């Protein structure tokens, strides 16, 4: 899809993805974030969560990946412009299945006119319908090429 194909209020919902033990372990390894909430099952049994939880940034990464799987931004995406107001509402637990809803909240052409700016609201939801993360992620996209 190109800039002209988007309109404010459109929403797109991804497929689900189950967060696995492997996801959490690999994320801890490559990010170097080995804090106990993600890596120490024994100490987490006595925590407010009662078990290990996924890294917050793992949730954000999965949300971005699920949005990519929608296939609607891939051919026209130029640049990610920023992440604003990202919130962690609830923990993502190992075994949770999450999906992302992307709502177009704003759309404007750049001053050069050869691209557009999309304001997008991301909402990551678990299998129970609980919002676990949300925030705004801007994206610059191509306009439709001349025919």
Walk me through what this model shows.
With about 150 residues, the chain is an alpha+beta fold. The protein has one domain: Hotdog Thioesterase (Thiol Ester Dehydrase, Chain A, Roll), CATH 3.10.129.10. The protein is about 20% helix and about 35% strand. It is built from four helices and six strands. The protein has helices at about 20-30, 35-40, 40-45, 55-70, and strands at about 10-15, 15-20, 75-90, 95-110, 115-125, 130-140. Strands 1, 2, 3, 4, 5 and 6 form a six-stranded antiparallel sheet that branches. β4 (about 95-110) and β5 form a beta hairpin.
Q: Any key phrases for this structure?
A:
Thiol Ester Dehydrase, Chain A, 6-stranded antiparallel beta sheet, elongated, 147 residues, alpha+beta, 22% helix
**CATH domain topology:** Thiol Ester Dehydrase, Chain A
Domain count: the total is 1
Helix content: 10-25%
**In percent, how much strand structure appears in the residues?**
35-45%
CATH class category: Alpha Beta
In round numbers, the mean pLDDT is: 96
